[in-house]
Structures are given as structure tokens and as C-alpha cells.
Amino acid sequence: MPEGTLGAQPQSDRSAAPSAAPGLGERLKQARLGHGLTLEEAAGVTGLSVAYLSRLENEHRQPSLPALLTLARVYATTVSTLLGERGAGEETIIRAKRAEPFHAHGWTYWRAGSPRRGMQALRVRVPPAPATGPARVHPGEEWLYVTAGQLRLTLDGTVHLLGPGDVAHFDSGLPHVMESADDHVPVEFLMVHAAPAMVAFSACLPAPPGH
């Protein structure tokens, strides 16, 4: 169960930390108000608790990636927009020197695609430490490509070990945990998340020749 979801065990505020993206809380609040939602209504739509949403908006807690993906979907925006990245709309080229990292729960993320597209593309680095949070569950699909290190992907209870060049493509509605399989070396991978609307569209496309 993702952090902050309704029914999840509450966590002490002593573990809370200021947001790594200045202004994120206010952007989340304005996005919610822009849809005419109270905190209670937003909690009902997202499945996140009122207390968790309040902490995010007050920047008393860093959001997890699944929470950001859920909020972006509900508020009809993108993770990059919520993080305050000021790209030039539908960018075709993103230079490495312009890709500033975002840190949350020990993970490091870099935007690897335009913030205005239907798919969210990120470059991710996971530290060499066991995963401590619950399994991630959120609507859509995920595609992973390991670029360095060893990734331990636990998908719906089954453990898969992936090395550089290995790929995983799965329904992100299945419980999944991603962590470095090496106790001393981080793992890096590219990740693309497709929202449900994009998944539904791709299902309507004709199959490639020979299939």
C-alpha cells in the first residue's frame, strides 16, 4: 500500500522533512483548488489520506513518486509541472546540464522527457539500501531500462534481478518494489510511466507486422 494511502498506518511527524522542491506544497494546493476540491474530496479521489495531503501542501513531508503520479493524474497536470520545472513546453531535446535532480526518500530523479507529454520519463538512481516503504501501487504502466548496477524488482510477490540492458514492462497497478540488489552500489535506470488514458490509446493501435 503506497505511503499516505487511506488505511495505511500513520507515520510520525518526526520523520517528516522539508520538500526538496521549493514551492511544491503551494503548487499542489493551487492544483487542488483549481479543480474545486477540498482536502477531503481530494483524498477520496486519490486514495491518499487527508493528513498526508495536508502535510504535502504544508511541505512537512516529501511525496513519493507514486503519490506524485497519482496527484498529477487527478489534477490533470504532470509531475514536472508540480515540481516547478520550467521547461519550454513540449521540449524535443533535454540537455544533460539542464536536468536538475529531485530528491525524495533517498532516491534521485532527473526528468528525461517533456513535462507536457502523456508519458512521464525519468532517470532514477536508487541508493544501495534495502527498501523500507510499502510496495508501490498506482494506475498505468511502467517501463524500466537498467543502465548501471543491479536492480531487484519485486513484482506482485515475485523477485526479478535485472542488470544493465535488462528491461521490465508491467502494469503498475501490481504491487512493486524497486531496490538495489547490491549492498554497496546504487542502481540506475530509465523509467517511463504511462497514465491509464495513454495505455488505453496504445491498446487500440494495430499490432506490428508479423504479430
Automatic annotation (TrEMBL):
Residues 28-82 form the HTH cro/C1-type domain. GO terms for molecular function: DNA binding; DNA-binding transcription factor activity. Keywords: DNA-binding. InterPro entries: Cro/C1-type_HTH, Cupin_2, Lambda_DNA-bd_dom_sf, RmlC-like_jellyroll, RmlC_Cupin_sf, TransReg_Diox_bact_type. GO terms for cellular component: cytosol. Residues 1-22 are annotated as: Disordered. PANTHER family: HTH-TYPE TRANSCRIPTIONAL REGULATOR, METHYLPHOSPHONATE SYNTHASE. This is XRE family transcriptional regulator. It comes from Yinghuangia soli.
